[in-house]
Write a structure and sequence with these properties.
The chain is an alpha/beta fold and 466 residues long. 41% of the residues lie in helices and 15% in strands. Helix 1 crosses helix 2 (53-62), helix 10 packs across helix 16 (413-424) and helix 16 (413-424) packs across helix 17. The longest helix has 20 residues, at 427-446. The chain is globular and about 65 Å long.
Length: 466
């Protein structure tokens, strides 16, 4: 998707339309909203990205397409960061309870956002506020600003969010439920459910919804969502990440794991990473280490703690818990990375043949788009249903263990080794890889000129600039 550059001062003359992006302050949400900001900006529409200062810094620091950002016409607004505790992640907690203080802090952004909107609204004929689903409470005062329209952004899988809401409402209407669909049991804690419930009322007043998904992946469920919200427009414009790969080859800062991948055989490496909200217990890390070794497959393993609410305080590296002599023993077979790794570049690399993942929606989309099948190991939130979509419906992955069994404690090394071998070294795994590559091809086409997602994005831009 082409990016046009325009001098930033243009946005401060009376613009026709300006877009204000309001992300939820958690990495995967910040990143998706920034990707979407770049896409909207590529249509020559001024975009303002507004969040607490620490989270704006985080979004920019980790953005994997710096070249895209440097051309985009995006104005960053660093709102005062509300005071909040940033406790270290607790690997024994099922749900990432270390994120709860930043959820509380996000609610305090209501006044700064409202103030900012009042400042911007005289500068444009129409102000479009695109806010994360989880920020509906925060942007509620847009109702008092006459030239403002709000659109919610759903950064999660449509399949998961549709069935989560359906289950939360006590299955209020008849629906053919997929067999063995994971229940809500163990997915969320009560504080987070209350936080979601708080948003629901405010979401009713939005003018429409943008989804980071694609009809080639979950068209059936996007149609269900459209039926459910008959009076609202829905635009499925994802995935956002296809043009964002910068392999680093033209720069001096190529990550060491990409150099290591360059030396490996085609599709021979399993990439292992559990995202930014999950910390494994020491015992589980040991079992995983042994399982990877027993599988006999090559791997890159990103071993780091979950993000704290504020990633700029303290250290994310954890004390060493791998079996003694592990890395020396597996030199050339496995690479353990203890810092931030360029996930999209790893998945796009020709040597990567599989991805062991927690099945956060970002990770699922990136893996499918790059044609890489998944060893699914969901942990919480929407992940169990995302994993179910990947393994049972799309059939582009295998489960480490069924969701109901995963909640019973540590997953044994033998179970892990078996799942890895099934994906990386079996006929069934080979067929999955073919299916994923076909689906990835269709998904990449969807965002190109004339593709279904691109046309939906064109339609959204036409709608807001009408």
């Amino acid at each position: 998707m082409g990016v046009h550059n325009q001098h930033p001062s243009h946005a401060y003359k009376q613009a026709e339309v300006v877009v204000i992006m309001v992300p939820f302050p958690c990495y995967s949400h910040l990143n998706q909203v920034l990707q979407l900001s770049c896409l909207i900006s590529s249509y020559n529409v001024p975009v303002h990205y507004a969040c607490s200062a620490t989270h704006v810094h985080q979004a920019k620091l980790r953005f994997n397409a710096k070249n895209r950002l440097s051309y985009a016409q995006i104005h960053f607004h660093e709102l005062p960061t509300p005071p909040f505790l940033s406790p270290p992640p607790d690997p024994n907690s099922k749900f990432p309870s270390h994120l709860l203080p930043s959820i509380e802090a996000s609610l305090q952004l209501r006044d700064p956002i409202t103030e900012f909107l009042h400042k911007i609204s005289p500068m444009a004929r129409r102000v479009i506020v695109v806010h994360d689903d989880l920020m509906a409470y925060v942007v509620q005062d847009t109702a008092t600003i006459p030239n403002t329209e709000t659109y919610s952004f759903n950064p999660t899988c449509t399949f998961s969010s549709f069935f989560d809401v359906w289950q939360m409402m006590g299955k209020p209407f008849q629906l053919e439920e997929p067999q063995e669909l994971p229940s809500l049991e163990g997915c969320y804690n009560s504080e987070f459910l209350n936080f979601i419930t708080l948003q629901i009322d405010f979401l009713k007043s939005t003018s429409g919804t943008i989804i980071n998904s694609c009809r080639s992946i979950e068209g059936t469920y996007i149609d269900l969502e459209v039926q459910l919200h008959k009076n609202k427009q829905i635009w499925a414009v994802g995935p956002f990440n296809t043009g964002a790969v910068d392999d680093g080859k033209n720069s001096n800062n190529q990550h060491k794991c990409l150099e290591w991948l360059d030396k490996q055989d085609l599709k021979s490496v399993l990439y292992v990473s559990f995202g930014t909200t999950t910390s494994l217990t020491n015992q589980q890390i040991k079992e995983l280490a042994i399982g990877l070794e027993q599988s006999g497959q090559k791997f890159i393993w990103v071993l780091r703690d979950a993000d704290k609410g504020d990633i700029f305080t303290g250290d994310v590296k954890r004390a060493e818990v791998l079996p003694e002599g592990y890395e020396e023993r597996l030199k050339g077979v496995g690479l353990v990375v203890r810092d931030w790794a360029p996930q999209l570049e790893i998945l796009a690399h020709q040597s990567t043949g599989g991805f062991m993942s927690h099945c956060g929606w970002n990770s699922c989309l990136e893996s499918i788009t790059m044609g890489v099948p998944i060893v699914a190991w969901p942990m919480h939130s929407d992940q169990p249903k995302n994993a179910f979509l990947v393994t049972d419906i799309l059939k582009v992955g295998v489960v480490v263990k069924q969701w109901a069994d995963l909640q019973e404690g540590v997953v044994a090394s033998s179970t892990i080794a078996e799942a890895v071998k099934k994906l990386m070294a079996s006929r069934e795994g080979e067929e999955m890889r073919k299916r994923t590559e076909e689906l990835g091809g269709a998904t990449r086409k969807a965002v190109e000129e004339g593709g279904v997602s691109r046309m939906e994005l064109d339609s959204f831009i036409a709608h807001i600039t009408r």
